[in-house]
């Protein structure tokens, strides 16, 4: 765990450096509010661990990891506007704090800073651009063409959640100068972890106790969001089984990779197991 904390500290330090350099100060304040108010930093950790697994270093991957975290945060700003959510990570959401216009500008600013970090490698830029296309299609689908069955739900989950997870891992492999086969394998691993995460998230929102979860429940139902328990015939138990299947397939994809750092690979496997078992 000490090594994980070292990686997390590296991410936080670089994230602060990037945010502190944002101009003008008004935009910097808004970006700082969004990015430094908390967060698990799961995606940048995936970037670093994927890089180390295939032979790179944390330092090789940290800029790409910070970049994908900025993209993720930019998407959350928009999510909160769509959902009219006034809270994010226990603090005021960007639109509630600054207004809709400044929040949208902050989201744009986050994307600009992210792509400045990706611009060092055309492959990195392409990977993230493709993920953002998928994310945009997923967001549009959720609003206007909601899934009506399990297959359509799984496609939505891959686009909305899996795509950025995939990009996070692929960026790590790219930072380690991996071959396309390795990039694809770690990408599949992370995409399936993202889908498992989304399924479990939907189940917890539907059945968990709010005090145990640490946040309000019933969010999906109140907003008429297409959660796995609302658009499919799956019971919560069956949905958890689907999440477990995705996690198992994620680990299978990881097994196709030539592992250099077994400790980093072990953390990636633990993540795949954790997203299915988590209670909050």
Automatic annotation (TrEMBL):
Keyword annotations of the record: Isoprene biosynthesis, Magnesium, Metal-binding, Transferase
Keyword presence, Transferase: yes
EC number: 2.5.1.-
Name under which the protein is recorded: Polyprenyl synthetase family protein
Protein family (similarity comment): Belongs to the FPP/GGPP synthase family.
Cofactor(s), by name: Mg(2+)
Signal peptide region: none
UniProt-listed GO biological process terms: isoprenoid biosynthetic process
Entry superkingdom: Archaea
Single GO MF descriptor: metal ion binding
PROSITE patterns recorded: POLYPRENYL_SYNTHASE_1, POLYPRENYL_SYNTHASE_2
């Amino acid at each position: 765990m000490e090594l994980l904390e070292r990686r997390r500290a590296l991410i936080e330090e670089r994230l602060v450096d990037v945010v502190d350099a944002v101009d003008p100060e008004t935009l910097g304040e808004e970006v700082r509010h969004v990015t430094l108010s908390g967060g698990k930093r799961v995606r940048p950790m995936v970037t670093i661990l994927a890089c180390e697994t295939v032979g790179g270093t944390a330092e090789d991957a940290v800029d790409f990891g910070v970049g994908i975290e900025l993209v993720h945060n930019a998407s959350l700003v928009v999510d909160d506007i769509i959902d009219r959510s006034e809270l994010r990570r226990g603090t005021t959401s960007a639109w509630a704090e600054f207004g809709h216009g400044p929040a949208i500008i902050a989201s744009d600013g986050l994307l600009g800073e992210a792509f400045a970090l990706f611009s060092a490698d055309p492959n990195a830029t392409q990977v993230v651009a493709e993920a953002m296309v998928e994310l945009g299609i997923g967001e549009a689908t959720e609003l206007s063409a909601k899934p009506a069955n399990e297959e359509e739900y799984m496609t939505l989950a891959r686009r909305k959640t899996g795509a950025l997870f995939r990009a996070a891992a692929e960026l790590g492999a790219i930072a380690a100068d991996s071959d396309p086969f390795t990039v694809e394998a770690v990408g599949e691993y992370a995409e399936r972890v993202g889908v498992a995460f989304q399924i479990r998230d939907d189940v917890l929102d539907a059945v968990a106790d709010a005090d145990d979860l640490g946040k309000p429940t019933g969010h999906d139902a109140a907003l008429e969001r297409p959660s796995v328990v609302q658009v499919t015939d799956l019971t919560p138990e069956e949905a958890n089984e689907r999440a477990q299947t995705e996690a198992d397939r994620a680990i299978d994809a990881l097994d196709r990779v030539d592992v250099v750092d077994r400790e980093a690979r072990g953390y990636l496997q633990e993540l795949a197991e954790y997203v299915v078992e988590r209670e909050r």
